């Protein structure tokens, strides 16, 4: 007897959201199944103590992203696009930070989608001009948020959570780049993964 396949939107999916930054980069991971949303983790990559060495910060972003990918096996990355400011050098650095996060996901064959900041705010709050505080307040109203280590990190982490939630609301309708998910790659290539990551093969197969 062949059982019918479940609709794609009813299968569990893990979305990673990233709010790029050169000193603090917010990240979040949510699991969605239909309309149900579970927050797995939201926090930041804190690089404030690394001084002005931009190369070390980029390395930190790439390595931490890989750690998160291997731990949670996200299916897709949703990342906020850099906003245009008056400081060209800051924009260049922010773009590099965003690029490292994207590169880490692409190295694990995880597709990514980019969202404008106004699109993220509009999806979560209903207005593209909402403040960070307003975004965080709306997320508190709509989601059960686990505690976070330091209150000072909260707004950067909730910004990333908003990006992930925006992607869920849009159902990935923005143009997607990249290939199949890292979880799917693990399921198809168990012999290519060793160590602790291999222990997650069963979870990847169940998706």
Please give a quick description of this structure.
This protein has seven helices and five strands. It has 207 residues and is α/β, with parallel strands linked by helices.
Structural account:
Keywords: Cytoplasm, DNA damage, DNA recombination, DNA repair, DNA-binding, Endonuclease, Hydrolase, Magnesium, Metal-binding, Nuclease. Residues 188-207 are annotated as: Disordered. Mg(2+) 2 binds at residue 80. Its EC number is 3.1.21.10. Mg(2+) 1 binds at residues 19, 156. This protein has 207 residues and is an alpha/beta fold. It has helices at residues 54-72, 88-107, 117-125, 132-142, 154-170, 182-188, 201-205; strands at residues 13-19, 24-33, 36-46, 76-80, 112-115. It has a 5-stranded mixed β-sheet with strand order 3-2-1-4-5. A hairpin with a 2-residue loop joins β2 (24-33) and β3 (36-46). The longest helix has 20 residues, at 88-107.
Main sheet summary: 5 strands, mixed
Q: Roughly how many Å apart are the termini? A: 21 Å
- Shape field: globular
Question: In percent, how helical is the residue content?
Answer: 40-55%
Structural class by sheet pairing and helices:
alpha/beta
Please tell me how large the radius of gyration is. 17 Å
The H-and-E topology, N to C, reads as EEEHEHEHHHHH
The unreliable regions are 176-182, 192-207
Mean pLDDT across the residues is 82
Number of helices: 7
Widest sheet, order of strands? 3-2-1-4-5
Number of strands: 5
């Amino acid at each position: 007897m062949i059982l019918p396949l479940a609709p794609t939107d009813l299968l569990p999916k893990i979305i990673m959201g990233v709010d790029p930054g050169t000193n603090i980069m917010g990240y979040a991971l949510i699991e969605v199944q239909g309309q149900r949303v579970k927050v797995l983790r939201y926090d930041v990559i804190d690089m404030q103590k690394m001084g002005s060495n931009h190369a070390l910060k980029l390395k930190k972003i790439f390595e931490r992203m890989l750690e998160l990918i291997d731990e949670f096996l996200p299916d897709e990355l949703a990342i906020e696009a850099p906003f245009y400011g008056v400081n060209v050098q800051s924009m260049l650095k922010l773009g590099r930070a965003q690029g490292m996060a994207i590169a880490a996901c692409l190295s694990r064959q995880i597709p990514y989608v980019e969202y404008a900041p106004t699109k993220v705010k509009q999806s979560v709050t209903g207005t593209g001009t909402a403040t960070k505080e307003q975004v965080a307040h709306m997320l508190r109203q709509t989601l059960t948020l686990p505690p976070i280590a330091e209150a000072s990190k909260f707004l950067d982490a909730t910004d990333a959570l908003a990006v992930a939630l925006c992607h869920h609301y849009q159902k990935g309708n923005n143009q997607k780049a990249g290939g199949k998910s890292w979880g799917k790659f693990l399921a198809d290539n168990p012999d290519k993964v060793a160590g602790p990551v291999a222990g997650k093969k069963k979870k990847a197969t169940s998706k």
